[in-house]
Amino acid sequence: MRILIVEDEPRMLELLRQGLYEHGFTVMTASDGETGLAMATAHELDAMVLDIGLPRLDGYALLRALRASERRTPVLMLTARDTEDEIIHGLDGGADDYLTKPFSFPELVARLQSITRPRREKADCAIRAGDVVVDPVRRTVWRNGESISLTRLELLLLTCLARQAGQCVSRQTLIEFIWGAEHAVGPGALDVLVNSLRAKIDAPGGQKRVGTVRGRGYIFRSAAGAEKNA
User: Tens digit of pLDDT for each residue in 191-227?
Assistant: First the structure.
């Protein structure tokens, strides 16, 4: 799942980013309300973790603006403000859940899973691209009925490519989807990951599914001869 964290305290922001990343989330971050709102409206998110006491635009105002834009992104307010009035104000303002600091990561992850469950259950999670079936929620991949074991990063790469099968996906789009927009990765990290995925997903002697579009990015071939110049 892609999560946006909006938190102004640097140590807490890094703690949340690293912790959620280690629990399998793709994480984006913002340290003020205006930036958080801009990111929340510009990206497709599965959920947002939102502090209240933010510079430039507080959490309540951010949430009101988000709901006014008709974005239904699930929002978990995570704050040190623990009075009953604050909790009611947050929930009445459009938050889906409210968790106070200090907190435990297992509880935070469980609450994020809970507020995003209706969306995940409503959607058909399996992605079918030719003879390849990817289920990002169950973390399973099949080709021609045979199970393929992938690492977390390989699965994220395949998911992004398979969702747009037949279309070139830019290197920057892939990097942001896999590692997050703010996470610095070396220039060759994506190429290494692509080669690792190819070694597992391509059938011996069969068509190569992950193609390179020179100077642009990568493409997932879902059918033989469907794409050119890749």
Answer: 999 999 999 988 665 668 899 998 889 999 876 444 4
Does residue 84 lie within any of the structural domains? yes
Percentage with pLDDT > 90 across the chain: 48
Examine the domain organization and report whether 106 and 162 are in the same domain.
no
The token pair that represents 151 in the structure block? 């690492």
CATH code of 159's domain: 1.10.10.10
Question: pTM for the complete prediction?
Answer: 0.59
Residues 148 and 98 in one domain: no
Structure confidence at residue 126 (pLDDT): 81
